[in-house]
Amino acid sequence: MKKPVLLLLFLFTLTALFAANLDEGFGGAFPPPGWKLINGGDTKTWIKYGGEMGYVGYSALIEYSATAHDDWLITPQLSPAIGASTFSFWAKNAFVQLDRCNIKLSTTSNNQADFTVSLASNFAPANVWTQYNYDISAYAGQTVYIAIQAISTNLGDLLLDSINGPYLTGFEGFETNNFNLLQWDNSSSIPWTIQSTNVNLGSYAAQSGAIADNGTTSLTLTQNDLLAGNISFYQKVSSETSGDYLRFYIDNVLQGEWSGEVAWTNRSYAVTAGSHTFRWTYSKNSTSSSGSDCAWID
Q1: Quick one: 224 exposed, middle or buried, by C-beta within 10 A (0-12, 13-18, 19+)?
Q2: Nearby residues of 35 by Cβ (< 8 Å), 6 or more positions away
Q3: Are 62 and 150 in contact (CB under 8 A)?
Q4: Assuming Cys at both sites, which of 179, 204, 295, 297 could form a disulfide with 174, CB separation 3.0 to 4.6 Å?
Q5: How high does pLDDT run on average in the chain?
Q6: CA angle at residue 196 from 31 to 282, to 5 degrees?
C-alpha cells in the first residue's frame, strides 16, 4: 500500500515540474515536509502515531478531546491533471463514538481562510480501515491544496494513513542528502554540497562550493514541458557586500542577485510554459572575503 515518500521542502511552485504523485504514509518527520499543520483547538492536535491501532506502520492521529477540535492537516501543493485527479486516503475511527472531519480544497494558498471548497462536510469515517476517494478533475490544470479539518468535540480518536493524490508541484528540499532527486547539474570544478548546519526547513540545504577569489560555482536544473507558474525558493547569503554574489538566472537571464548578510528569504519568479533552465551561481571578485563566504538555498 505504501511507497517511499519524497521528502521535499524546497518549493518550486511549478506545475508539472516532475511527475511525483502524493504518496504519504507518515513514516518520517511530522508534519511531513511540505505539509502544514494548523492547531486551532486545544493542545491535542494531529500527531504521528505508531501504535497498534495504525494501518501499516505509522499513521496520523487526532486524539479525543473534551473541547472542540479545529485542527488542519494540509497537503503540499498538488497539480491535478486529466487521468491523475483523484485524492484518496485510508481512515478509521478507533471507537464507537465517531470523530468527524471536513475535507476542504484551496486553489490559492495553504492559509486556513482560503479553503473555500468543500469536498466533504461533517464526515465520519467508519470504525474499520476504509479508503475514501475524491474526484478533483474539475481542477485539472490548476494548483490546489487539500485540508483535512478535525472538528469534533468529546468523541473518539481518528486515524489517517496512505494519503495519495495528484502530482506534487515540484518540491526539492535536499532531504535525500544528495542531488539525486532531480536532474541537477552540479559539475562546477568546486561543486555545491549538501549540509545540515544552516537550513531553512527540514534537515538539509544546499551550500555553494568553497571557491577562491575570482571563482564561480553553479547549481543548475533544466526542466521540460512545464506549465506556466512560479518558481519559489529560500536563499541565504553571507559574503562580501557588493563583492561576492549569489545570482539566480532563468534561461541565462539574471533574475536577482544578493551579497552581504542576507537572512533566509523567500524568492519567487514567474515562469512561462515550456522548457527552462534555472541556475544558482555564487561568484567572488578578485579581493577580500567576508562572513561565511558562501550562499545557501533550501
Answers
A1: exposed
A2: 24, 73, 74, 75, 76
A3: yes
A4: 204
A5: 86
A6: 115
Residue 185 pairs in a beta bridge with 220
- Rounded to a whole number of angstroms, the distance between the first and last alpha carbons of the chain is 30
Q: What is the pLDDT of residues 45-89, one digit of tens each?
A: 899 999 877 777 899 998 877 777 899 999 988 888 767 799 999
Helix, strand or coil for residue 114?
A: helix
Cis peptide before 4 (omega within 30 of 0): no
More confident call, 222 vs 217:
217
**Distance in angstroms (rounded) separating the CA atoms of residues 144 and 136:** 9
Candidates 268, 271, 266; CA nearest to 224 is 271
The string of DSSP codes covering 128-189 is: S-EEEEEE-GGGTTS-BEEEEEE--SS---EEEEEEEEEEE--B---TTSSSTTTTEE--SS
**pTM, rounded to two decimals:** 0.59
Residue 131 pLDDT > 80: yes
Cell representation of residue 219: 547549481
CB atoms within 10 A of CB 172: 24
Helices (H) and strands (E) in the chain, counts: 0, 22
Mapped onto helix, strand or coil, the DSSP state of residue 192 is coil
Q: Cα angle vertex 160, ends 155, 162, to 5°?
A: 170
